[in-house]
Amino acid sequence: MNWELFESLLSGVNKYSTAFGRIWLSLVFIFRLLVYVVAAERVWSDDHKDFDCNTRQPGCTNVCYDYFFPISHIRLWALQLILVTCPSLLVIMHVAYREAKEQRLHKAGGGSCHHIYNPGKKRGGLWWTYLLSLLFKAGVDVVFLYIFYRFYRNYTLPHVVKCELQPCPNVVDCFISRPTEKNIFTLFMVVTACVCVVLSLVEAAYLVGKR
Length: 211
Known about the structure:
By secondary structure, the chain is mainly α. It has a single domain, classed as Gap junction channel protein cysteine-rich domain (de novo design (two linked rop proteins)), CATH 1.20.1440.80. 68% of the residues lie in helices and 5% in strands. It has 6 helices and 3 strands; from the N terminus they run ααβαααββα. It has a 3-stranded antiparallel sheet with strand order 1-3-2, covered by helices on one side. β2 and β3 (172-175) form a beta hairpin. α2 (19-43) packs antiparallel against α4 (73-109), α2 (19-43) runs antiparallel to α6 and α4 (73-109) packs antiparallel against α5 (124-151). The two termini are 38 Å apart. Mean pLDDT is 80; it is low at 113-120.
């Protein structure tokens, strides 16, 4: 990862964020992105390899694993983090586009160039872009929380699952690798996502109230 580029993006987002937005960004970066990169990927690295069923029937273990894990936690979290951070970059792109446009107008008119937006004062199109980005971020987290709940009831993994799908010869017991550790990480990610949803909605209410 190019950390200098990432740092410049973070500073650009912080420049046009409120205090709630800065807290949200810190929460996403420290408690979601870093935890995902440093720890969560390693916890789920053996989920398929160490998924054991008490049968040697060819194909049974793969079929049961696919049924109980239709999509990996890691891939869902990666998609969630990508979608939830895109709106912040959209705000930066909006500001960059409008400032470049004003720059061209000032150069054509022979005047001096200033920033079209003053950090901390969101007006016009930027206000709407920022507000919609907050609602989109909250919506993305809510949708993914619902998807996780539908795939993994109560966001937990059982220690033993019973599978009777073909080509398994009968009802077989399958054992998940490190379910307790995975449940702890899942609960942590769910709680941080809920906190991010609350922060986004509070910031949206704050913007509307200030308007």
